[in-house]
Amino acid sequence: MKRIIAIAALAALPMLAQPALAADEVNVTTGISAGGAPLAVHGVDPVALLSGKQVVAGSSDFNIIHEGASYYFASQANLDAFTAEPAKFAPQHGGFCSFGVSVGKKFNGDPSQFLVQDGRLFLFLNSATRDAFLKDTAGNAVKADTFWGDIKHTAAADL
């Protein structure tokens, strides 16, 4: 019996060495992308959202894994821009709904409901949460940034 327990414990060691799942810190879709990691921003190109302020589907031909999630881009130029400055182009609050984060929750961030403000990309659950955020953009951004530090490493289901 002791030998079986010891073998089971040894078998679990590789799992313990793995980094946290991206779903804890980055809003990702279910399943694995072509890059081998869960897909961020629902496959939409975050550089196009931030730079062109338009929703453009990314391609698995242009992808990178960043913070445990795979990001797709519409072009090599957008992939290169993200690679050079991921913090500039990655959505705020891990791509979760920034209004949700401002109240201490993690809701899905829909890239069709986005806001570019002060060079930052914010995603929202829906138009209602986007509108609520817009009522006090600066104040809600500060609240979201503060809460993000507290909830970043907490699974959405635990909030």
Question: Describe it for me?
Answer:
With 159 residues, the protein is of the alpha+beta class. Helix content is 43%, strand content 16%. The strands form two sheets. It has a two-stranded antiparallel ribbon with strand order 1-2. A two-stranded antiparallel sheet has the order 3-4. A hairpin with a 2-residue loop joins strand 3 (110-117) and strand 4 (120-124). It is globular, with a radius of gyration of 17 Å. The N and C termini lie far apart (38 Å).
What's the β-strand tally? 4
Spatial order of the strands forming the largest sheet: 1-2
Radius of gyration: 17 Å
Terminal CA distance reads 38 Å
Number of helices: 8
Oligomer state of the chains in this structure: single chain
What are the defining features of this structure?
two-stranded antiparallel sheet, 4 strands, alpha+beta, single chain, 16% strand, 43% helix, 8 helices, 159 residues
List the helices and strands and how they pair.
Elements: H1 2-17, H2 22-25, H3 46-52, E1 59-66, E2 69-73, H4 76-84, H5 86-89, H6 98-102, E3 110-117, E4 120-124, H7 127-134, H8 137-151
Antiparallel strand pairs: 1-2, 3-4
Summarize the model shown.
The chain has eight helices and four strands. The chain has helices spanning 2-17, 22-25, 46-52, 76-84, 86-89, 98-102, 127-134, 137-151; strands spanning 59-66, 69-73, 110-117, 120-124. It is globular, with a radius of gyration of 17 Å.
